[in-house]
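Q: Convert this sequence to structure tokens.
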Amino acid sequence: MMPLTPLLGAALNHLLQGAEWARLRLRPFAGQSLALELGPLSLHLTATAEGLFSSQSAATPAVSISLPASAPLLALQDVDLVMQQARISGNAEFAETLSFVFRNLDWDVEADLAPLLGDILAHRLVSTGRSLQRHLRQASLNLAANLSEYARDEAGLLVSPAQMQGFSQQLLRLRDDVARLEKRLQHLERSPQP
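A:
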């Protein structure tokens, strides 16, 4: 069984080969290492002078990125979701560069499949996959909306915005009534007793 770090390094390098802008951004950080923690997995990579990654790492990483174990599933939905949950520490400039590169690095699946399957089949597979992804995203949004509506309207577990606004107005009226009552009591205390 191959270790995971060289596989991840090879996958990142494959993506970086097609993105010269990313390699140019990584070159100034040659020799600096990255520790990536994904749930129980810990991966160590070092930036090379070519703007790629090597699986050889330094003893102390310049940047540590900790991701939740659900990161691969979140990445299928949206890379920004993963980046929002990432905890990054270490060299700020290197961390910012890594964040920008990882956020904008894109895999051209069609170009990788074309030599294996042909241009037409690769194009159809990729467009079918994108369509399926859009439908799954919409289905998950619909499910969330339906569950929210059920919890609010049927089960009474959530409060609707109209109910919340009505409650807020009642609280404001109660506050005003209490303030008037306090003033009246103060006025009665100050007035002479018969």
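The two ends are 98 Å apart (CA to CA).
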